[in-house]
Design a protein that fits this description.
homodimer, 243 residues, 7 helices, Jelly Rolls, DNA-binding, four-stranded antiparallel beta sheet
Chain lengths: 243, 243
DNA sequence: CGTAAAATTGAGCTGTCTCAATCAATGTGG
DNA sequence: CCACATTGATTGAGACAGCTCAATTTTACG
């Protein structure tokens, strides 16, 4: 019997838990589990750093572990011929890179850093063992996979059937609400290190056009977006644009 | 000991197996398993019919089972405000509607029939029990989930960064190769009941424009597309357009 | 402090859309 | 099994959202 990983009153998003994006520490606390089933000690993992703007994992690379971004932001991105690139998702601090790595060692896309940061790679075999032995871990991971999937579907609908304005509004609202859930709003603003290039690659647009739309947002007092932070000034109006 | 579900020499795609899309019957044969772990008898399931062009399951409906389309074609589709619709995936005969239902009873999208057909709904609890008790079933289902996910990522890249011609070419090639894998090519052609509306809703285009692109394909002798069947005449050229 | 990366702005261009009319195919009821 | 009703496909003309190219300014960072 050792001390639990997090103090019992921590809410999801606590900085003690490396997998806070999954709320796993809390599950473990609820069940009276302790260190043995979470990252720090028993599941083997390796801690690494990454620099801003670098590719962390390359398209078609084979991984023998499941990486979790501890600090910093990253993105999963698909690189096409003649340099076109499409961002599939943003990975905010504390999130698992992609749950599909739990069931397939081959990464079909590349993971690029946005900011500098750190990640830990969990041993796949041990993580899967934990998953089969502890049902709540299984449930958490699979429901995280479902969330990933649902976000992908939303993105498909955005790209297929929404206008530039709607896509950008929804991107901002989506990240906002993820940060909100993880209790990472400070002074009414969130950290938002995405450059307009990222927004363009995520929404299937051009940086030139993204710039124009965002300036329209600014002029309409919908958002403040500068110095790597985002503040939503008029969320109702933004939601309306995102409809 | 009862007879195995499929004759041992069946390849994936055999019509005996209701979950042939997953190749589950073969796994079971390989392992010497028998009926108890596959649909027909032990896992409770209900057989139903659907009419062409009808919505089979509605967006936000809650399901207590996992449906598999046995015959006929369907599509999973997201319906937005002011009538815009985006097709997320096509479900060809023999495929599970969506693996996410294994881990979430709520369906965030709607399932619309293309042709008429039949489906079976498997009892969720029993399917999950089989999954945890029989590792190969677990692996098959999760790798099917990964496939679903990878296709979604491809679609995102298509919609975000490819031209109308490329999107349509890739849609045709994608379905072609799925049918090929399931050994459903006959006389160099596949069943292809998609209307141009479906292609438009899947590629984020307009039926008007889809018609123009497809006629360009026809004029270039790339494909034959009529009477609900598709024949690819010049696959290299089509792949090139899909790059 | 200097250099590289990012953002902005403007002018023109084009891929795809809208609207609208027509024609072909498919399905349904009597 | 035919006639009508519905759904799907085609075509053309015009419009526009978002793109390209290019120059300039601003911001970030080693």
């Amino acid at each position: 019997m050792t001390a639990p990983l997090c103090p019992p009153d921590q809410k999801p998003g606590c900085s003690h838990c490396i997998m806070r994006g999954l709320g796993l520490c809390n599950v473990l606390i609820d069940m009276g589990w302790e260190r043995p089933y979470t990252g720090e000690t028993t599941i083997q993992q390796k801690k690494s750093n990454f620099a801003a703007r670098r590719t962390i994992f390359h398209q078609n690379e084979t991984l023998d572990g499941v990486p979790v971004i501890c600090d910093g932001w990253a993105t999963s991105i698909m690189k096409l011929s003649n340099g076109r690139r499409q961002i599939l998702s943003f990975i905010v601090p504390g999130e698992l890179v992609t749950c599909r790595l739990l069931f397939d060692r081959k990464l079909h896309l590349s993971i690029d850093a946005i900011t500098r940061g750190t990640y830990r790679t969990f041993d796949l075999a041990q993580l899967r063992a934990a998953m089969t032995m502890v049902p709540p871990i299984f449930d958490k991971l699979l429901s995280a996979y479902n969330d990933e999937r649902n976000r992908a579907d939303q993105l498909i609908a955005d790209l297929g059937r929404r206008t530039a304005t709607g896509r950008i509004a929804r991107l901002m609202l989506d990240i906002w609400s993820r940060m909100e859930k993880a209790d990472m709003i400070e002074d009414g603003a969130i950290e938002f290190p995405l450059r307009q290039t990222h927004i363009a690659d995520a929404t299937g647009l051009t940086t030139v056009y993204v710039s124009k739309v965002i300036n329209a947002f600014r002029n309409g007092s919908l958002v403040e977006y500068s110095e790597r932070s985002l503040k939503i000034l008029n969320i109702d109006k933004l939601r309306q644009l995102a409809a």
